[in-house]
Amino acid sequence: MKTYFISLLVLLTSLQVLAQKNQEINYDSDRTLKNEERYPGALILSKVDNQVYFDHDGIEVWCDNAVFYKSANFFKAYGNIRMQQGDSVSMTSNYAEYNGNTEFAFASGNVKMRRPQTTLETDSLFFDRIKQQAYYRSGGKVTDTASVLTSRIGRYYMEDDKYSFINKVVVKNPEYTINSEQLDFYSESGHAYLYGPSTIKSETSTVYCERGFYDTRADNGYFVKNSQINYDNRILKGDSLYFNRQNSFASATNNIRVIDTINNSRVTGHYAEVYRDKDSVFITKKALAASLQDRDTLFIHSDTIMITGKPEKRIIRGYYDVRIFKEDRLGENPMSGRSDSIFSDQQSGLTKLINISSRGNGKPVLWSGDNQMTGDSIHLQSNTKTEQLDSLLVFDNAFLIQKDSIEGYNQLKGKELVGYFTDNSLNKVIIDKNTETLNYMRNNDNELIGINKTLASSVEILFVEQQIEDIYYYNQVDGQLTPEEDFPPNARQLQGFNWRGEQRILSKEGLFEGEAEPKLTKIQGIALPDEPEEFFDEREEDDLLLDENSRLKPDVLKNRETDSLKFKNKVSTDSLKKDIKQNDSLKNVIEQEK
């Protein structure tokens, strides 16, 4: 008895569903005619005072004229057509067809579908009421509260208020234009997901990515996969980029490069911030600035690097454990240095190595060839036209040390040091005020003949191929040459001697010696959309989506491979729910970037 009751319930339920599915279309017309010769089995409905009216399962249609095939539950509508589904969807067109059994509609001629947030305009539109989806493939335009979106192919998911655009997608906003191969757009939020090669262009910047998210109303976005931002004179690249147009701000995370297209320089690292209006760049995590100078490159590395100023007035600042390295053209006599901080003015050509905190590892030090120079601060002056090194100044406690070719150290110290360069190589040094020198003197056969320790008011040293060639002493000279065996070993270092040769940087790779690799931030990716179900279902020959009297041949109501998503996950899951979850996660990413 129980089994019989359940079977009867299932049967009644099935019959109810079938009855609902085949619910007849209701109609009202001022004039109703028949023309069996031209329209066999159809009613011809016409407007006199009131438009022809159809009603079917929650959808209402008004038109001037119609051909209604009552037995097929199908009609064709002509002239000033208006369709209304509830309070949220309305559509107008010049022509329309509707099948009450399949709840499938087709509209053409100045089609406009209106939703609370958007208006869709196209030449022809398919509308599946069961799936609650609309589809066009002959070009369409969607007008949003902030933007106008166009594409050749578009699909609208009503339940999630989502558009999926493919093929020549363009988003036009008063402030920018987006071009993409594939784009998903959520009407309620104004959020857009970009897939494939995409650009966002404005008067002040161009964003490129191959996968990205953009909030078209808040004017900010998050981009991954080959992403970059081009400003007037800078290019920002990284594994992930955040961009806020209103604040003229961008940030980059992991494997980043900031390229200065005017000053032939670039900065790399793993986190950067760019403020366009302030012409400033902040970079950290293995920060490295590289500036092309006279066909050589000067590298600056520190914990943090900041670049500010207009292109012709760039200033580079580096903080904490600064290291610099520069090779000459032949790569034989590299120059390198270390300091707590660095200041470099590209307009004046002045670079300062200074200490400003307790985090420093000693006085600034500079090596030119085998010559080590230290002092409380070191200034390097470059020729702004040739970009070659011109001179250097060492202020307070100047100390020059050169390791002897065989043993010991040649040493010169004083209050201040001035050095001069030729072809980026040190060729003359003048040490002034209370100078002391200690030199290993050798004959032409490089045999040691003694150690010379001398006091003078100032000293001039000439170099040949970065080696000390001659020393000239001026005013109040007090010194003598002492045989090596008579010179006490404990007196062979001047007071303040500090040889730091183990810190010398001999290659670009040496800039990072002794440093741990930074821990990189885990990038929040943007997943490809899952492959959606096909819009047109496979049907039997006698089971038509519209009707045999439709303008459209059955072959038209079929899916085409050329119209399918190009960038997608080939997994049949609920893509819309996934997109919404992804939407929420990207909000968190953007909040963190802010």
From TrEMBL:
Xref: InterPro entries: OstA-like_N
Pfam families: OstA_2
All copies of domain Organic solvent tolerance-like N-terminal, residue ranges: 47-181
Keywords annotated in UniProt: Signal
Signal peptide annotation: 1-19
Superkingdom of the organism of origin: Bacteria
Protein name, UniProt field: OstA-like protein
The organism of origin for this protein: Christiangramia gaetbulicola
